[in-house]
Amino acid sequence: MQQREEKQLEASVESLISRVAHVKNALHGFIYKLENEYERLTWPSVLDNFALLSGQLNTINKLLKNEKTPSFRSQVIIPLLLNPDRDEDLAKLTEQRVPVFSHEIVPDYLRTKPDPEVEEQEKQLSAEAARIGPEVAQKQIQTLNKLCSNLLEKLNNPRDDRDAESAALRQNKPSFNPADTNALVGAVAFGKGLSKCRPPGPVAPGHPGQGPMMSGGPTLQQVTIGGGSGQQAGMGGPVAPQQQGQPGKMPSSIKTNIKSASGSMHPYNR
Amino acid sequence: MEAPPVTVMPVTGGTINMMEYLLQGSVLDQALESLLHRLRGLCDNMEPETFTDHELVYLLKGQQGNPFILRARRSLSHPTAPWHLRYLGQPEVGDKSRHALVRNCVDVAASHSLPEFLNEMGFRMDHEFVANGHVFRKGAMKVVVTKLSRILVPGNTENTERLSLSYLVELSVLAPAGQDTVSEDMRSFAEQLKPLVHLEKIDPSKQRH
């Protein structure tokens, strides 16, 4: 009987040691990656590392819960000899992490109770729980359960319901204007709204001032107005020979503009 | 004066004919921040790159109807950098199922005497504008978010006024001709930017009127 238990204990300790060694290696690799390959790291690979660690911890948990594993709580570790001198074998065994088996390391490595601060907090929590009484506690438990089930329901429900509500919300704030897209594409592709003889076309929204009263011959006019803000207003006056060559359609628009300019009395008219 | 389509020209040497695959969209000012955050997450990890450029578009009128267009671009934030001259051909009318606008593209660098040279050659400047914004990169794809401004006094790049309350968003890839997988990749990237921005193939000739 004794021997069987001893054998079981030994076997489970062996497997526990190997699992913990796996976790240690995974942590080691992860820390190395975080410290040295910081720039190249991507979020999916960090998630992979975390998933690996979580899987390994799960295996350890399962191992401990296994019925073949004897209860480790009933085992006691008693240090038989504490030596303040450096122990080379121990140092080699623990990869230089524990060079001395002395009085200082006993409270940390052979600890079975929680840390003093944690113990304090646990005592406070149990005192609090005892204080509020059973009915209040029951009500709190019920509220928590209800909240959790509500949340689970919302998460598990088909996506269509959720998407319909969120889509309705998002309609209120459109993030782009198709008319603007066309205007910008036109401007980049062939200078719609930009070139010398600006056609009475796309007007930028929100611009103060009159409607499009563009004309040819802006070069001279711009100089006289001094490059004022807002759109160039319609103007008559002689359309002097341009500095740059004009595309073929210029002559017709000049005539048109002179016609329209004579109709409007603009203060900046020459 | 357009270059003949790629398939007809024999490749005798020199540079490979590069095609530009393009998708365009726009985003309003208030949504710009969220778009920039999303792009910073989706694209390659690099320092955010901003640019301020002055582009001049030169036309050469031939005997035929269509003028020959060249685009000269210089950086206002790096005044000593060379000028960039670009030719963009007509969009290829391939199958309608292709998701991006494809056109022939030739890029060269030029010295600072480019505007005078083009004037001497007979080109005339048609229009100019100032573009500033951000550039992002993901592999071969380049995403540019630009704010276009009109130049009020020709040659004076200080005095500008915004063309619109939106930013132009362009997704482009430069690739040799015939690689149609590129447009698939571009389309899946564009999906990730919805619903902030709808990147689509906009035919410039349809915008003319």
Automatic annotation (TrEMBL), chain A:
What does the annotation say about its assembly with partners? Component of the Mediator complex.
- Relate the protein's function as given in its record: Component of the Mediator complex, a coactivator involved in the regulated transcription of nearly all RNA polymerase II-dependent genes. Mediator functions as a bridge to convey information from gene-specific regulatory proteins to the basal RNA polymerase II transcription machinery. Mediator is recruited to promoters by direct interactions with regulatory proteins and serves as a scaffold for the assembly of a functional preinitiation complex with RNA polymerase II and the general transcription factors.
Q: Where is the composition biased (Gly residues)?
A: 225-237
> Would you identify the family this protein belongs to, as annotated?
Belongs to the Mediator complex subunit 8 family.
A Pfam family this protein belongs to? Med8
User: Per its record, how is this protein called by name?
Assistant: Mediator of RNA polymerase II transcription subunit 8
Q: Where in the cell is it found?
A: Nucleus
Q: Please classify the protein's predominant subcellular localization into one broad category.
A: nucleus
Q: Which organism is it from?
A: Sphaeramia orbicularis
Q: Residue ranges of region Disordered? A: 157-180, 198-217, 224-270
What one GO molecular function would you report for this record?
RNA polymerase II cis-regulatory region sequence-specific DNA binding
For biological process, the GO terms are:
regulation of transcription by RNA polymerase II
**What spans are recorded as compositionally biased (Low complexity)?**
238-248
Compositional bias, Polar residues, is annotated for: 253-263
**GO terms for CC?**
core mediator complex; mediator complex
Keywords in alphabetical order, please: Activator, Nucleus, Transcription, Transcription regulation
Positions of transmembrane segments: none
**Domain of life of the native organism:** Eukaryota
UniProtKB/TrEMBL annotation, chain B:
Q: Please list the coiled coil stretches.
A: none
Q: Does the keyword Transcription regulation apply?
A: yes
Q: Which processes are annotated in GO (biological process)?
A: regulation of transcription by RNA polymerase II; termination of RNA polymerase II transcription
List the subcellular locations: Nucleus
Q: Which GO terms describe its cellular component?
A: core mediator complex; mediator complex
Q: Which UniProt keywords apply?
A: Activator, Nucleus, Transcription, Transcription regulation
- Does Nucleus count among this protein's keywords? yes
Q: In terms of one coarse class, where is the protein primarily found?
A: nucleus
Q: Domain of life of the organism in this record?
A: Eukaryota
Q: Which GO terms describe its molecular function?
A: transcription coregulator activity
- Its biological function? Component of the Mediator complex, a coactivator involved in the regulated transcription of nearly all RNA polymerase II-dependent genes. Mediator functions as a bridge to convey information from gene-specific regulatory proteins to the basal RNA polymerase II transcription machinery. Mediator is recruited to promoters by direct interactions with regulatory proteins and serves as a scaffold for the assembly of a functional preinitiation complex with RNA polymerase II and the general transcription factors.
Subunit (UniProt) = Component of the Mediator complex.
Q: Which family does it belong to?
A: Belongs to the Mediator complex subunit 18 family.
Name listed for the protein in its UniProt record: Mediator of RNA polymerase II transcription subunit 18
Which species expresses this protein natively?
Answer: Sphaeramia orbicularis (orbiculate cardinalfish)
**Gene transcribed to yield this protein:** med18
